[in-house]
């Protein structure tokens, strides 16, 4: 069940990133992030009503706030990179960083991995980089490299923080996360971008990004509260495969042979992690 939840989160993150990235081509990225996070609250409310928590502590909410800060930084920087048209450059670094950080924390705090799981994680990391490989082989500038690492570290922080919450708290830690993410997003938006309100078709893409992102967060919270941090984080970081497939279907983009090989590696990694 934990692995299914993590894979489901990767699928939802893939749709969310495509929707948010598409909207960020037309509107200020931090504004897209802030508005999408606001609209995604509807999915959170539904989750809280359908799956009520048994017991919520201040620590659970506090970890949620920390997760929200990390997630806001990661998402804002990712949308910024998508707006600049450099997704294929930044995405593999961000995804790999977001996966590696929780693995390090998991092992440092006494977590153990089977041989197959370790091999699966290595293959998954290779798949992440392969799927999102830059076709034009551009080199990462220092600015883009720093942005990618910071974005991945933000997502990794989200995973680590949510993993500290109790299963009995249900989805309430995500309330703390949104309480941090939304104000922070609008603050940065007003400081560094011209204030903008989404209108017309952009509203649909922003709403889609918010709902898919919150759906992914609900799935990842359930997975992290029940399963090993490292494996869950790696599986959920396979989202570039989904984003690439969606882009191929919607924007008629073609997957390169290298990217097809990356998707194949991702499937092998999933099988090894499930065994």
Task: Kindly describe this structure.
- With 275 residues, the protein is mainly α.
- It has one domain.
- The chain contains twelve helices and no strands.
- α1 crosses α11, α5 packs antiparallel against α6 and α6 packs parallel to α10.
- It is globular and about 50 Å long.
- The chain starts with a helix and ends with a helix.
Q: Order of SSEs, N→C?
A: HHHHHHHHHHHH
The count of β-strands is 0
- Helical percentage: over 70%
Average pLDDT confidence is: 85
* Uncertain residue segments: none
Output the structural class.
Answer: mainly alpha
Please give the largest β-sheet: none
Coarse shape: globular
Radius of gyration: 17 Å
How large a portion of the residues is in β-strands, by DSSP E? under 5%
Number of domains: 1
The end-to-end span amounts to 13 Å
- What is the overall number of helices? 12
Question: Can you summarize this structure?
Answer:
This protein has 275 residues and is mainly α. The protein contains twelve helices and no strands.
């Amino acid at each position: 069940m934990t692995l299914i939840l993590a894979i489901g989160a990767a699928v939802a993150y893939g749709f969310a990133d495509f929707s948010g990235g598409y909207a960020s081509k037309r509107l200020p990225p931090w504004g897209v992030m802030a508005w999408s996070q606001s609209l995604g609250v509807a999915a959170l409310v539904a989750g809280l009503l359908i799956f009520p928590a048994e017991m919520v502590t201040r620590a659970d909410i506090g970890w949620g706030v920390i997760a929200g800060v990390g997630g806001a930084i990661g998402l804002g920087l990712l949308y910024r990179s998508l707006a600049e048209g450099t997704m294929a450059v930044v995405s593999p670094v961000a995804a790999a960083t977001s996966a590696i950080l929780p693995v390090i924390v998991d092992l440092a705090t006494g977590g153990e991995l089977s041989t197959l799981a370790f091999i699966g994680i290595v293959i998954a990391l290779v798949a992440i980089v392969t799927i999102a490989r830059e076709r034009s082989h551009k080199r990462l500038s220092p600015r883009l490299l720093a942005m990618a690492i910071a974005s991945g570290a933000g997502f990794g922080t989200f995973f680590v923080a949510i993993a500290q919450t109790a299963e009995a708290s249900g989805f309430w830690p995500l309330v703390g996360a949104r309480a941090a993410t939304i104000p922070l997003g609008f603050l940065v938006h007003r400081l560094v971008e011209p204030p903008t309100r989404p209108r017309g078709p952009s509203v649909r893409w922003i709403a889609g990004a918010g709902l898919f992102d919150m759906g992914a967060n609900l799935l990842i919270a359930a997975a992290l509260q029940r399963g090993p941090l490292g494996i869950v984080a790696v599986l959920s970081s396979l989202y570039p495969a989904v984003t690439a497939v969606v882009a191929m279907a919607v924007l008629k983009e073609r997957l390169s042979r290298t990217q097809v090989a990356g998707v194949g590696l991702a499937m092998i990694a999933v099988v090894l992690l499930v065994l």
